[in-house]
Design a protein that fits this description.
The protein is α+β, with helices and mostly antiparallel strands. The protein has a domain of about 35 residues. Helices cover about 30% and strands about 20% of the residues. It has three helices and three strands. It has a three-stranded mixed beta sheet.
């Protein structure tokens, strides 16, 4: 099915549903095909731990820093 852009704007929900159910939809401008409307396909599963061993979190990472506290709360804190 070839649909001009103006019609695609008006009927986007209907066209998305059609593509989701296997219909081929081509969006055109002045009857010249420009793009295909296709269903989303995930690229693949993410690999957990990909950067394991690549960086080190310091032991004092969660410790408060007096200089930063002073910037936020002033000298009184």
């Amino acid at each position: 099915m070839i649909v001009n852009i103006s019609d695609a704007k008006t009927n986007l929900s209907k066209l998305v549903d059609m593509v989701y159910h296997g219909e081929k939809v081509v969006i055109a401008k002045n009857n010249l095909p420009l793009v295909d409307l296709v269903p989303h396909k995930p690229e693949g599963k993410r690999t957990l731990g990909l950067l394991q061993g690549e960086f080190h979190v310091p032991d004092d990472f969660m410790d408060e820093d007096s200089e930063i506290n002073e910037m936020f709360y002033g000298d009184d804190a």
